[in-house]
Amino acid sequence: MNSEQQRKIGLTSLVLLALAFIAAVIVSNSLLSGMRLDLTENKLYTLSDGTRSLLSNIDEPINLYYFFSDRETSDVQFLRSFATRVQEMLEEFAANSDGKLILNIIDPLPFSEDEDRASQFGLQPVSLGGLTESVYLGLAGTNSVGDQEIIPFFQPTKENFLEYDVARLIYTLANPIKTTIGLYSSLPVNGGFDSRTQQPTQAWAAIDQAEQVFDIRTLAEGFDTIDEDVEVLWLIHPANLGEASLYAIDQFIMRGGRALIFVDPVAEVAGGGANPLMGMNASNSSSLEPLFSAWGIDYDPSVVTADNQLALSINTGLSRPVRHIGLIGLDANTINQEEVITAGLQSINVGVAGSFSLNNDSQLTMTPLLSSSAESGKLPAAQFQSLQDPSDLFDNFTPTGVQQTIAGRLSGHIETAFPDGPALEDATDFQPLLATEEANIVLVADVDILSDRLWVQAQNFLGQQLLTAFASNGDFLVNALDNLSGSAELIGLRSRASFTRPFEKVEELRVAADAQFRATEERLQAELAETERNLGELQAARDDNSSLLMSEGQQRELQRFLDEQVRIRQELRAVRRNLDADIEQLGTRLKMINIGLIPLAVLIFALIRWVISRRPRRSHA
User: Fold this and answer.
1) What single string gives the DSSP state of each residue in 419-430?
2) pTM
3) pLDDT higher than 60, residue 277
4) Rounded to whole angstroms, how far apart are CA atoms 28 and 492?
5) Nearest one of 273, 271, 294, 293 to 281, comparing CA atoms
């Protein structure tokens, strides 16, 4: 066989191979059409069961408008990668909605009608610091009755909650009626009359903020029933509740109700308004002891959580501010960033708070939301009664080295505290619910967290009261109510893993190479220092008068160091070359797998499915 024939055979083989590849692609596209296989480690592209259940309950179509400045971000790769992740998640939502979600993908070019539409929805353009024009990366949704909800801008730092944020928007549009919140408080949270100043008082800013989002229904003092249409029970400082009220709360939770409960060992706002140094009284303490005992919750209203690391400084009228270990400024390290309610919150202030834990008999699970630092301990609540100098608290304070749970989410099986009904004179024919399958309760061991003085500053401007938040207490409240007011499926959603995955093997190679590089470099520096010392000693030992010229011994020592320096620098370059070679070799193996093995595996799978689909036809024939 001559060379010309070999060339023709080789060319023919290449053509046949190309045709076979094209045919394989066509066959796989037709046979595998509509099939989706998520091979990511954490199933990033697979919706949770809760989200699928939520989508199955959509009654009427919902329009989603995804605005992303595609052309404006052509050179911003990190944002484009995240935007692709968002789009793929939205497409997954639409694919599992049985046609009830209509997804529109829009690139709002500058000065276009699409940009005007994004602005009308309330989406927020974000400047990338001169890299490009302001860009959009947000979502708007509308339902059949004209309601609309938006996610102003998808933050890459909150990617773990991408599924929850989109599901929450869809749930709100599918259920447009405001959630009814049943509120009970032994404090004048809705405003009242201050007997000291003889002036009416404003409602708490936290209450005003919640009323903008929810339908707040106030429960009367001594309530013994909770209406069926109340979806979330909100208790603020439930001090000295009677058994009828406790039984009503118990049965509300037994029938699947959700609750947000604020109790406090020393509620400063109850004893002295905004002044934390004024005397306290018996109504400062609150608890739900019968219920807590039944749930297996350990909460001691006679004990306060103090924290030396997170203590806030207050002005007591003395010469300088004093650190108050009972007033705690929680930061991102003590605020759970993996929970929907608290993710992204950086600063929350609490005042003379308690703590929760589960006893050994509890069947519940408690997930901490707000915690103290490890430099915290417990002090008797009596020490905070009529406290004049916060520095006195340090006298008996000893950190335990254990973080205390100031706020937590309860989940799991829960049993009634009244298996025989309430012990009331007129209690007849009671048939209490004995247990519920899943509890949805958020407990907070502080009431002052809601008081204005710990998170918001009020200013009078042209007769209007302007509020400026300096902490995230209000966001924590609204997030908790918002989460509890969703469906059970929505509440069950937790953070997902990030799609940004590090190259762990490459990082291991780099770390090892850096360690070797630093060791070699340190050896070079040590030898340089040794050479300089030797040169100095040789110079000091000379007895001639020519101090400007090197002696033969100095020249030999210098030449020895220069030769050694060249050798060590060669070692440093070799370390870097070996690192690049190892990474290049790893990259080559990955390319072979991606280019060769993966398509081959897909082709084999498609052929197997084709063979299986052909068998029934032949047997039928």
Assistant:
1) TT----TT--S-
2) 0.66
3) no
4) 37
5) 271
One-letter amino acid at 455 equals W
Residues 325, 311: contact at Cβ < 8 Å?
Answer: yes
**Which is nearest to 124 in space by CA: 89, 165, 153?**
153
Q: Write the CA distances from 387 to 272, 326, 545, 616, integer angstroms.
A: 12, 11, 80, 86
- Count helices and strands in the chain by DSSP H and E runs: 14, 24
Half-sphere exposure of 231 (CA within 13 A, CB side): 15
Residue 469: closest CA among 448, 452, 447, 482: 452
Distance CA 605, CA 166 (A): 34
Q: How is residue 597 annotated by DSSP?
A: I
Residues 6+ apart with CB under 8 A from 109: 69, 71, 72, 115
How many Å apart are CA 405 and CA 336, to the nearest integer?
A: 11
Q: Of 195-199, 239-243, 275-279, 595-599, where does mean pLDDT reach its minimum?
A: 275-279
412 burial (CB, 10 Å; 0-12 / 13-18 / 19+) is middle
Q: Is 281 helix (H, G, I), strand (E, B) or coil?
A: coil
The whole-angstrom separation of Cα 134 and Cα 128 is 7
Q: Rg of the chain's alpha carbons, rounded to an integer?
A: 34
136, 108 Cβ separation under 8 angstroms: yes
Q: Which residue in 57, 51, 76 sits closest to 163, CA to CA?
A: 51
Mean pLDDT over 331-351 rounds to: 90
The phi, psi pair for 569, rounded to 5°, reads -65, -35
Q: Which residues pair with 412 in a beta bridge?
A: 364
- Whether the per-residue pLDDT at 353 is higher than 90: the answer is yes
Buried-exposed string 302-329: b where 16+ CB fall within 10 A, e elsewhere: ebbbbbbbbbbeeebeeeeebebbbbbb
Distances in Å between the alpha carbon of 467 and those of 209, 451, 458, 573, 581? 11, 13, 5, 61, 60
Window from 356-360, 424-428, 599-603 with minimum mean pLDDT: 424-428
CB-count exposure of residue 355 (10 Å: 0-12, 13-18, 19+): buried
Q: Which two tokens stand for residue 252?
A: 């509300």
pLDDT at 319: 61
Helix (H, G, I), strand (E, B) or coil at 467: strand
pLDDT at 348 > cutoff 90:
yes
> Residue 571: pLDDT band by 50, 70, 90 thresholds?
low
Looking at residue 604, what is its pLDDT? 78
406 has a pLDDT exceeding 80 = yes
- At 504 the pLDDT is 56
Q: What is the chain's length?
A: 621
Give the 3-state secondary structure of residue 218.
strand
Question: Amino acid identity of 9?
Answer: I
End-to-end CA distance of the chain: give it in Å, rounded. 47
Mean pLDDT, residues 468-478 taken together: 89
pLDDT band at 272; cut points 50, 70, 90 = very low
- pLDDT, mean of residues 425-442: 73
